[in-house]
Amino acid sequence: MQLQPLRFGVVGLGVFGEAHLSCLRGLRAATGIELAAVCSHTAERARSLAQEYGVPRWYTEVAALAQDPELDAVCVTTAEHEHAAATIACLQAGKHVLVEKPLATTLTDADAMIAAAVQSGQHFLVGHVLRFEVLYTTVQERVAAGDLGELVAIACRRNRLTQEMVRYRRVHPFFTASSHDLDVMLWLTQSRVRRVRAFTRTVRPGPTPDLAWGMLDFHSGVLGSLETVGLAPEQGGLKVDDALNVIGSRGSARIDLTRAPLLVWTEDGMTVPGVSYVPHTRGAVRGALREELLHFIGRLRSSAAPDYRGLAEVRHGVAVTLALIQSAEEDRDVVLAEED
Description:
Elements (H helix, E strand, L loop, with lengths): L5 E6 L3 H17 L1 E7 L3 H10 L4 E3 L2 H5 L6 E4 L6 H10 L3 E5 L6 H14 L3 E4 L6 H11 L6 E11 H5 L10 H13 L3 E9 L9 E8 L4 E10 L7 E9 L3 E5 L7 E3 L2 E3 L8 E2 L2 E2 L2 H14 L9 H20 L3 E2 L5
Parallel strand pairs: 1-2, 1-4, 2-3, 4-5, 5-6, 7-10
Antiparallel strand pairs: 7-11, 8-9, 8-17, 9-10, 11-12, 13-14, 15-16
């Protein structure tokens, strides 16, 4: 039986926006989706990627794409501070939306986005991609099954290439790299955060810190630590220096992406191709992003009503992030409000 086409648009055509395009293109035959429209502030970028990926329509204004009558769903992959405006415009125009993490950079925006989703009746997913990465899902399943006993502590580290992180210094590192690990902590603990303490350092001149450390005290009693750095050497051959350590009363689990499963040596040196999040193989993006998009498409294909229950946890992640930033700026512990 031929599937009814699901017509997708992508708003925001940076590195990850193009990754969404590549992955969606690879899913067309298996899922019956169509790439219908793209949008970028830069006309040449929108035009060139539309041509490259065979997309029939391109826009430079989100409002125009949102009102496109031949569009069913939109992936919002804009800069973080633009998530709210693009998401709300698309939801209010009757489009299903997958927005990249973080949900928003203010609680006002987060609340407006959640309200728009509920009022629209459309499917709405926040793209916390580690919930679809096989190593992290394996750890979560073992934790949920009780294999590690009662959770005691979770430690996360994320250190990326200096030049790679330059583009992300437009926003605080607790909102960029750390948002992955904070979401994993909330997912594993199924608990809210009670109190935080954070420190930051600026090693290279820039608008935001390039080193951020945070301590989290969960209501469940779990202690968490976040370490986010953007100082990995360019010539080291290692693109990802990430780790997760989960300690329970009867066991522990560790993910260490620094000890990469794939190493390639050539006359130009050693490289470590990424194989977890958005690997490019057989002409398409695969890995966790592909699984995330398949999950979203599955929701749209199902007869089930949209499920907004997980959005409270996502909003709490925004509140915790803001508390971490406040803690670092004011050099003190910050206790989260009961409603956050």
